[in-house]
Amino acid sequence: MNPKLCSWFEACGQNSTVICHLCPRNCSIDPNLTGFCGIRKNIEGKLYLLAYGRPIALHVDPIEKKPLAEFLPGTKTFSIGTYGCNLDCCFCQNYHISRGHYSDAELQSDYDYISPEKIIALALKEGCQSVAFTYNEPLIWAEYIIDIAKLAKAEGLATVLVSNGYIEMKAAEEILPWIDAANFDMKGFSEEFYSEMSGGHLQNVLDTIEYFYSLNKHLEITNLVIPNKNDSDQMLDNYLQWVADKLDESVPLHFSAYHPMYKFHDSPPTPKLSLFSIKEKAIDAGFTSIYLGNIH
Ligand code: SF4
Fold first, then answer.
1. How far is Cα 265 from Cα 247, in angstroms, rounded to an integer?
2. N or C: which end of the chain has fewer CB within 10 A?
3. What is the 139 CA–ligand 1 centroid distance (Å)?
């Protein structure tokens, strides 16, 4: 099965180089190479999505595990993810797949190909009420998302996105209307944090979240709390103020415990008491739906 031709790219210059406009990295990609995310490849001057039809994780999950606390509670969601990511978080909690790559054998095997039709058939067979695009960063395989979402709508299945929100607005306007519920990551509420720890820009993420909120879809946001890096009172105050100003205080906010992983081991695991204190502070500020996660 050949890879899918990508949307959101343009040819550039004389050497069959292409520029991908899906996310703010705007990778310039020479022939036979992939962009930073590792799954969008220049083949003879055109960009192809290697991950189309090739999920490496397929699971039936409780929807609360996404986490979505207030969307179709008590139901199962058919969850899929691929390799790759467009951010570069040194603390990635899922780096085995976010920094993973497809082998040539995987890409050449028709046996491993799972069409959008097959995804929907499996979701219905498992009694799921939604399909979730999750595990790695789904927006980098948006063409697969859109094709699955079109079929999901026809079968009455909801669509769920769990994402870092790092996407160009033009692409967001074509992708996010297909999504019914999303949980976006808030890595840390400052440009410095995104630059130093994630290799991206906060403003793009804020723009995506505001745009999704404007669509009147179901929105939740998750903040992985890393001691001494993104848990200062100032950062939390700024974050809560932004949510209150641009969204509203009823948007469910998740605060999750971090565990040292991947390249970053300078902070200890998040103490439970820190999370409890963040919850108390948010509730005192008028927020009505605060959830704590990863507490053991
Ligand atoms: S989606 Fe991938 S290839 Fe495209 S700009 Fe982003 S990181 Fe680069």
1. 33
2. C
3. 10
Report the nearest-CA residue for atom 4 of ligand 1.
20
Q: Looking at the predicted structure, is the pLDDT value of residue 220 above 80?
A: yes
pLDDT of residue 295: 84
CA torsion, ordered 147, 133, 3, 120, to nearest 10 deg = -50
Atom of ligand 1 nearest to the CA of 21: 5
Ligand 1: which residue has its CA nearest to atom 5? 26
Q: What is the pTM of this model?
A: 0.97
What is the average pLDDT across 70-74? 98
Among the four given CATH numbers 3.40.50.620, 3.20.20.70, 3.30.365.10, 3.90.78.10, the one describing domain 57-293 = 3.20.20.70
Average pLDDT over residues 131-141: 98
What residue segments make up the domains of the chain, in order of their start? Answer: 4-49, 57-293
Strands 17-20 and 9-12: antiparallel
Cis bond before residue 31 (omega within 30° of 0): no
Q: How far, in Å, from the CA of 151 to the mean position of ligand 1?
A: 26
Residue pLDDT, tens place only, 240-287: 999 999 999 999 999 999 999 899 999 999 999 999 999 999 999 999
The CA–CA distances, whole Å, from 269 to 60, 78, 184, 294 equal 28, 30, 22, 10
pLDDT, tens digit, for every residue of 190-211?
Answer: 999 999 999 999 999 999 999 9
**Three-state DSSP class for 60?**
strand
Distance 266 CA to ligand 1 centre (A): 29
Mutate to test the pocket of ligand 1, among 4, 17, 21, 25 (most ligand atoms within 8 A of CB): 25
Residues lining ligand 1, Cβ inside 6 A = 20, 22-23, 25-27, 35-37, 40, 86, 140
